[in-house]
Write a structure and sequence with these properties.
By secondary structure, the protein is of the alpha/beta class. The chain is built from ten helices and eleven strands. Pfam families: ABC_tran, BCA_ABC_TP_C.
């Protein structure tokens, strides 16, 4: 595998908090065009690692590379412009606007247009059409003009994905996309992530094993801030150390 295949790479990524090492020397390699899941028992360092990759935290040491360029010290806005988009960066959706308005606002951000663009009716029409298309892609066409606050939890998560897609990400970072969902919503969001992964790379932190096993190309298992195992689901779930790490946690069964 060449470096060119890697869209995201970390070398010796480390983060300490008051003497506690939450992430310890992680070398993560995310291959272009794949769905890569970051899993691990509670306290494994998944969230810290994710926050380092999305620039919400600065590493104590180590480096991060996106598409071969070092982004260790880059600001979140700078990496968003390069195409690295974290789902909730824009899913701070406006609850009292409709889904179509929320997606339209997200669409105009990469264009660098301010609210002045609302004065151009042709531009508004074009953006609204694209917003409706994206809502169609995530199964929300029928809810385009409902107030966002009135959407079900699963539909709100689908809207987050639509607003993320509006930024046209090359690398899409999803933080626990199925958290708090019932089976039906989990299945719907899993299918949705699989669908939107075409032509882009997805890195997600996720706890739902069924979801991870069904769509991930590569799974990295963290334990105590270090990589315990990595590979496809078959390899990872057969790993005795992984089985042991999951015993006694809420995710005791890797095969459910």
């Amino acid at each position: 595998m060449t470096h060119a295949d890697m869209i995201l790479e970390t070398r010796g990524l480390t983060r300490e908090f008051n003497g506690f090492t939450a992430v310890n020397g992680i070398d993560l390699r995310v291959r272009r065009g794949t769905i890569h899941a970051l899993i691990g028992p509670n306290g494994a360092g998944k969230t810290t690692c994710f926050n380092l990759l999305t620039k919400f935290l600065t590493p104590t040491s180590g480096q991060i590379f996106f598409d071969g360029r070092e982004i260790t010290r880059a600001a979140p806005a700078a990496i968003a412009r390069q195409g690295v988009v974290r789902s909730f960066q824009i899913s701070a959706v406006f609850p009292h606007l409709t889904p179509v308005d929320n997606v339209t606002i997200a669409l105009q951000r990469p264009l660098g247009v301010s609210y002045r663009f609302w004065k151009s009716s042709a531009m508004v029409k074009r953006l609204r059409e694209r917003a409706l298309e994206l809502l169609g892609d995530v199964g929300l066409a029928a809810y385009a003009d409902v107030k966002t606050v009135e959407l079900s939890y699963g539909h709100k998560r689908a809207l987050e994905i639509a607003t993320t897609l509006a930024m046209d990400p090359v690398l899409m970072l999803l933080d626990e996309p199925t958290q708090g969902m019932g089976h039906e919503d989990v299945d719907r969001v899993t299918a949705l992530i699989d669908k939107v992964s075409k032509g882009r790379t997805i890195l997600m932190v996720e706890h739902n094993m069924k979801m991870v096993s069904s769509i991930s190309d590569t799974i990295t298992v963290l334990q105590r801030g270090e990589i315990l195992a990595e590979g496809d689901y078959a390899a990872v779930s057969a790993n005795p150390q992984v089985k042991e790490a999951y015993m006694g946690t809420e995710d005791a069964s890797l095969a459910h």
